[in-house]
C-alpha cells in the first residue's frame, strides 16, 4: 500500500514570488527606461508589491476582471509590465502577452480568440491600437501604460495606467486557488494557419522559475543585475520576470530601447551582470562596442537563444570582451527552457577549439525536461552524438495541448510534444540541432510562416508556384528567399511580386531575395521539394539591403 508523505500540500501561487521579493528583497530595484519618455525610473520590490496590489484592486473593481478572464498586454519590458504579470495572474486571471510585431489582422484575430477583456499597451503601440480597436468588440477596456498627460497620443477611448491604479487601496490579500489554474497565455505563430495559444499555469511557471534558478541555468542571485533584452511578449522573457524576483536579483528593463548604444548605456549605468536575448541583439551591441571602442566589463554571462549562437559572435564576446556566452534552447510550448549550455568538469582540460565546439551545441538538458529523439517511424534513437532525429519533450512546464484544442497533431499518443526541431544528443545529454522539420523561417528571433508567404505570393497573377525557404543571413540569422516559377509567358518581375505582398504580410516578412526557377522541384506527393531548393540555392547571398 502507498504511504503518503506528511508534507504540506501548499499550492504553488505566482503571487508568493512577489510577496517573497517584497519581504526579503524589498530594497532591490527594477530600473526601467520608460517607454513614454525614455527617462530612467527606479522602483524597489516593496513598492512594486504595493502598486501591484493597487492594480489588483483596479482590475477587479474598475475593470470587472474575474478569475479566468484574459487580460492582454502589448508592451515592452518595464516595471509596469512586471506589475501586470503578477497582478493579473495573482487574482486568478490570465495575462496574455501579445507580440506587437504581428500583422494587425493577426492581432485582431488573436484578441478575439483569446476573448481578451482588457488590453494594456505602451505608447509606441498607440497607432496600432487605433488601427485595431474598432475590430475588437470583446475588449472592453484599453489602458495606456503611462500617466494621463500622454493620453493625447491615442485616439481610441482609453484611460491611463497610473490613474487607474493611483486612487486604489494597496490593501489586498492574494487569493489562493488550484495551482493548475491558468496564469499566462502566449501565442506561437510559427507554423502555418492561425497562431496557437500556449496556456501556462501557476504550477508550471513556478517550477520553471525554480529550474531557471539553478547555477548552471540562469542562476542569478540577490547580487545579480539582470537585463532581459528578450521581450516579455516572447515566452515570458524566458521566465526571467519570475526567476529574478524569486531570487531577489535587480532587474534592468530597457523599454523599447534595444539598440547597441542604449543597451551599452544601461549596462554601464546599472553595472549589469547578466543579459539574455537573441543573437541579432548581440550583433547590434557588438557593432556598437567595436565602432566606439567601448567595453562591457560588468557583464559576466550572456544567455543567448531563440536561434543558434553564431561562432563569430561567441569568439568576439568571449575573446575580446571576456564575457561568457551561454547558449540555451527552448520554445514557447516549453515555458521556454529545455537545454542550457554549461560545461562539465571534464571539459576543463579541453583546448579552446574543442571548448568552442561544445559551446556551439544548444546545451545540456535541464532537470525537469524529458527528451527523446525519434526517427521518421517514431523509433527512439540512441544518444550517441550522431544519430539525428525528431526532438520530442515532456515535463511539468511543457504544453500538454494548445488553447481551445488547436494543434493536436503536435502531440504523440503517448503524451510527448513534437518540437519540430531535429537534433542529436550525446551521452552527456548535450543537444545539437541539425535541422528543423517545421516549415518556418526565423528572422531576428521572430517567426515568418513560409507557407503563409507562399500562399500570398501565389495570388500574384504571374506566379504559377512559389516556395519560401529560410536562408542564412549575417544579421538576422535567417531571411526568406522566395523561389518562383512564373506562369508560361508571364514576366519575371520580382519588384511586382514584392509590391503585391506589401499589403498582405507584415513588412519584415517581405522576402529579401526573389529568384525565378524554370521548373519547381516537386516530390512524389506533389509537394514542392524545399530540401532540393535549399541545395540549389546553398551558396545564395542576399542582396545587401537591410531588412
Ligand atoms: P523562443 O522565444 O525561445 O525562441 P519560440 O517558440 O519562438 O521560442 O521558438 C522556438 C524555436 O526556436 C525552437 O523550436 C527552435 O527551432 C528555435 N531555437 C530556439 N533556440 C535555439 C537555439 N539555441 N539554436 C537553434 N534554434 C533555436
Describe the fold and architecture:
By secondary structure, this protein is of the alpha/beta class. It is built from 16 helices and 25 strands. Strands 2-1-11-10-12-13-14-15-16-20-19-18-17 form a 13-stranded mixed sheet, with helices on both faces. Strand 23 (463-473) and strand 24 form a beta hairpin. Helix 1 (15-24) packs antiparallel against helix 2, helix 7 crosses helix 9 (240-247) and helix 10 crosses helix 11 (279-292). It is globular and about 70 Å long. The structure holds adenosine-5'-diphosphate. Adenosine-5'-diphosphate binds at residues 188, 234-235, 305-308, 327, 329-332, 336, 362, 419-421, 433, 436, 442.
What percentage of residues falls in helices of 4 or more residues?
A: 25-40%
The CATH topology of one domain turns out to be Rossmann fold
Total number of strands: 25
The top-level CATH class of one domain is Alpha Beta
Mean pLDDT over the residues? 94
Taken as a percent bin, the fraction of beta residues is: 15-25%
Brief description of this entry?
This protein has 16 helices and 25 strands. It is α/β, with parallel strands linked by helices.
Keywords for this entry:
547 residues; alpha/beta; Rossmann fold; GMP Synthetase, Chain A, domain 3; 13-stranded mixed sheet; 7-stranded mixed sheet; 25 strands; globular; binds adenosine-5'-diphosphate
List the helices and strands and how they pair.
Elements: H1 15-24, E1 29-33, E2 40-44, H2 45-61, E3 70-74, H3 79-90, E4 94-97, H4 104-114, E5 116-121, H5 126-132, E6 141-144, E7 159-160, H6 161-166, E8 182-188, E9 196-201, H7 202-212, E10 225-228, H8 235-238, H9 240-247, E11 250-253, H10 260-270, E12 274-277, H11 279-292, E13 301-304, H12 311-321, E14 324-330, E15 337-340, H13 352-359, E16 363-365, E17 370-374, E18 389-394, E19 417-425, E20 430-436, E21 440-443, E22 446-449, H14 450-457, E23 463-473, E24 477-486, H15 494-501, E25 513-516, H16 530-536
Parallel strand pairs: 1-11, 3-4, 3-5, 4-8, 5-6, 6-7, 10-11, 10-12, 12-13, 13-14, 24-25
Antiparallel strand pairs: 1-2, 8-9, 14-15, 15-16, 16-20, 17-18, 18-19, 19-20, 21-22, 23-24
The protein binds adenosine-5'-diphosphate.
Amino acid at each position: 500500500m502507498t504511504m503518503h508523505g506528511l508534507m504540506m500540500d501548499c499550492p504553488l501561487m505566482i503571487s508568493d514570488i512577489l510577496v517573497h521579493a517584497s519581504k526579503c528583497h524589498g530594497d532591490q530595484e527594477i530600473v526601467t527606461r520608460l517607454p513614454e519618455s525614455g527617462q530612467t525610473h527606479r522602483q524597489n520590490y516593496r513598492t512594486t508589491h504595493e502598486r501591484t496590489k493597487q492594480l489588483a484592486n483596479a482590475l477587479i473593481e474598475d475593470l470587472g476582471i474575474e478569475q479566468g478572464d484574459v487580460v492582454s498586454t502589448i508592451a515592452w519590458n518595464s516595471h509596469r509590465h512586471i506589475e501586470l504579470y503578477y497582478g493579473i495572474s495573482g487574482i486568478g486571471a490570465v495575462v496574455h502577452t501579445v507580440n506587437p510585431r504581428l500583422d494587425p489582422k493577426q492581432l485582431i484575430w488573436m484578441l478575439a480568440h483569446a476573448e481578451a477583456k482588457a488590453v494594456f499597451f505602451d505608447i509606441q503601440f498607440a497607432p496600432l491600437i487605433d488601427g485595431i480597436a474598432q475590430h475588437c468588440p470583446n475588449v472592453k477596456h484599453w489602458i495606456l501604460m503611462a500617466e494621463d498627460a500622454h493620453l493625447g497620443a491615442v485616439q481610441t477611448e482609453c484611460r491611463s495606467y497610473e490613474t487607474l491604479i493611483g486612487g486604489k487601496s494597496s490593501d489586498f490579500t492574494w487569493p489562493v486557488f488550484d495551482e493548475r489554474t491558468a496564469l499566462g497565455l502566449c501565442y506561437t505563430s510559427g507554423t502555418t494557419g492561425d497562431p496557437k495559444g500556449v496556456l501556462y499555469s501557476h504550477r508550471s511557471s513556478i517550477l520553471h522559475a525554480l529550474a531557471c534558478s539553478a547555477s548552471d541555468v540562469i542562476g542569478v542571485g540577490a547580487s545579480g543585475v539582470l537585463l532581459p533584452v528578450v521581450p516579455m511578449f516572447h515566452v515570458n522573457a524566458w521566465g526571467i520576470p519570475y526567476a529574478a524576483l524569486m531570487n531577489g536579483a535587480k532587474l534592468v528593463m530597457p523599454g523599447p530601447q534595444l539598440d547597441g548604444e542604449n543597451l551599452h548605456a544601461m549596462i554601464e549605468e546599472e553595472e549589469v551582470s547578466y543579459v539574455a536575448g537573441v543573437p541579432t541583439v548581440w550583433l547590434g551591441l557588438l557593432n556598437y562596442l567595436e565602432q566606439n571602442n567601448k567595453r562591457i566589463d560588468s557583464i559576466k554571462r550572456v544567455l543567448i537563444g531563440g536561434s543558434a549562437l553564431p561562432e563569430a559572435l561567441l569568439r568576439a564576446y568571449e575573446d575580446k570582451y571576456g564575457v561568457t556566452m551561454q547558449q540555451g534552447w527552448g520554445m514557447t510550448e516549453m515555458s521556454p527552457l529545455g537545454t542550457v549550455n554549461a560545461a562539465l568538469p571534464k571539459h576543463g582540460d579541453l583546448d579552446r577549439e574543442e571548448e568552442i565546439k561544445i559551446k556551439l551545441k544548444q546545451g545540456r538538458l535541464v532537470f525537469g525536461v524529458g527528451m527523446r529523439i525519434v526517427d521518421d517511424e517514431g523509433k527512439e534513437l540512441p544518444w550517441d552524438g550522431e544519430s539525428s532525429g525528431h526532438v520530442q519533450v515532456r515535463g511539468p512546464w511543457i504544453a500538454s495541448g494548445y488553447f481551445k484544442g488547436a494543434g493536436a497533431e503536435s502531440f504523440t499518443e503517448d503524451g510527448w510534444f513534437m518540437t519540430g526541431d531535429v537534433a542529436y544528443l550525446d551521452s552527456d545529454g548535450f543537444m545539437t540541432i541539425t535541422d528543423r522539420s517545421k516549415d518556418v523561417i526565423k528572422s531576428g528571433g521572430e517567426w515568418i510562416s513560409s507557407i503563409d508567404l507562399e500562399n500570398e505570393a501565389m495570388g500574384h497573377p504571374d506566379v504559377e508556384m512559389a516556395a519560401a525557404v529560410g536562408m542564412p543571413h549575417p544579421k538576422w540569422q535567417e531571411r526568406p528567399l522566395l523561389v518562383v516559377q512564373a506562369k508560361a509567358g508571364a514576366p519575371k518581375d520580382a519588384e511586382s511580386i514584392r509590391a503585391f505582398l506589401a499589403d498582405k504580410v507584415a513588412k519584415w516578412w517581405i522576402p529579401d531575395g526573389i529568384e525565378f526557377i524554370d521548373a519547381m522541384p516537386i516530390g512524389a506527393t506533389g509537394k514542392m521539394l524545399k530540401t532540393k531548393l535549399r541545395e540549389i540555392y546553398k551558396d545564395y547571398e542576399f542582396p545587401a539591403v537591410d531588412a
